[in-house]
Amino acid sequence: MTESPDTPPGRRRPSESGGRGAPGPGRRARFGGWAERPTGLLATDRPGPPRVPAPPHRRWLRAAALALTVAVLASAGLGWAVWSRLNGNIRSDSATERELEKYESERPPAGPPNAQDILLIGSDNRGGDNGAYGVDSGTQRSDTTILLHLAADRRSATAVSIPRDLMVPVPHCKRADGTESVPQTVQFNWAFAFGGAACAIRTVEMMTRVRIDHHVIVDFTGFKNMVDAVHGVQVCLPQPIKDDEAHVALPAGRQTLDGEAALGFVRARKSLGDGSDTQRMERQQLFLAALVKKVQSNGVLLNPMRLYPVMDAATSSLTTDAGLASLRGLYELVRSMRSIPTAHVQFLTVPRTAYRYDPNRDELVQPDADGLFGRLRNDRPVTVVPQRPTAAVDGKAAGRGRGGRPAPAASSTPAFPGTTAEHGACE
After folding, report:
1. What is the pLDDT of residues 148-194, one digit of tens each?
2. CA nearest 308: which of 78, 72, 74?
């Protein structure tokens, strides 16, 4: 056989048939197409230079890269675990949404773009962990209801308390047992007892003509957890409080309330002042103002280590509509409120007076109430002027501006008695 000049000695071309090196049927060529490795030493078989260990700094870089990779993967896993926990805490109130859909044609139109109106409902449910606060009768009423309006530019927030004893028209509502209540004029907190959040929302919308975009329900235990998550809120009491029904006994003076004591403070009624719900709402507003101020001043919203326990307490305490029933939904809401100055976080109560047929009940004062609702509905500014508090919170004189002068009311808009998160009270 004649070998071509470019054929290595002792090796056959793969194209040549026959012989031991031919790949034949069912047999694959190996070593780059050659069927058999020659016995001679090829260039690639010659011993290379001795292997030199990598310099120490290169070994350190490889170890650092490996450690960083592990840390990133661990952080991603931890982040996902935290996200999943917080997201799984939230309870979605889909039944309310389904009920409201039935009455869509009766509901007010949506407000200005990006403005939001959220109904905050404090339930007096005694079931589950709330059994320590009374006998569970199987029903629940809204001890506290606040209409929270967030301005479209997110430069102000207005929280309007709706008295539980306010006499209002309540529409027919579906009860938990499937029956329906009849339309009637009753005290406001019966709406929640009749038909849950859906009935309360429809009642507020009928009264205000403000479209409710979202709703949040929080019970006694949830409120306590929120206060404990921020390590308590400071109050200053001009006199001791002892209220057996509210399960609270507090001395006079400045003190920081934990969740249990704070719950008693905002629930107490019969042992303070004239025993009315009016004064209780004022205390609730002052307390919430102090809570908002503490969250903002402590940098909770910008510090993940401080934010996590607050978010954990909040998400595990809330029942919301589907739009807020996710960590992303709540985060977007909180993020949008982060830049609101405490002076523009306002608290007030709907204009009301004693009910003409029963001094133990309330009714709206007109046209003041409609004027307030119209401003919320059209996303126009609302101004509050200080009111004399029944208790003190956060150690500052309520209604006093800087330098101890009364806070001025804006002349361009009507003013309503209330307070802001910038002010507390201590007398």
Report:
1. 999 999 999 999 999 999 999 999 999 988 899 999 999 999 999 99
2. 78
Task: Write the DSSP symbol of residue 394.
Answer: B
Instruction: State the pTM of this model.
Output: 0.72
d(CA 392, CA 394): 7
CB atoms within 10 A of CB 289: 27
Closest by CA to 397, choosing from 416, 380, 419, 417, is 419
Contacts of 394 (CB under 8 A, 6+ apart): 233, 234, 235, 236, 286, 289, 290, 293, 294, 424, 425, 426
The kind and range of the H/E element at 279 are: helix 277-297
Contact 10, 38 (CB under 8 A): yes
Q: Which residue has the tokens 């009637």?
A: 184
pLDDT digits (tens, 9 = 90+) for 371-396: 999 999 999 999 998 865 445 555 44
Q: What are residue 137's phi and psi, to 5 degrees?
A: -90, 0
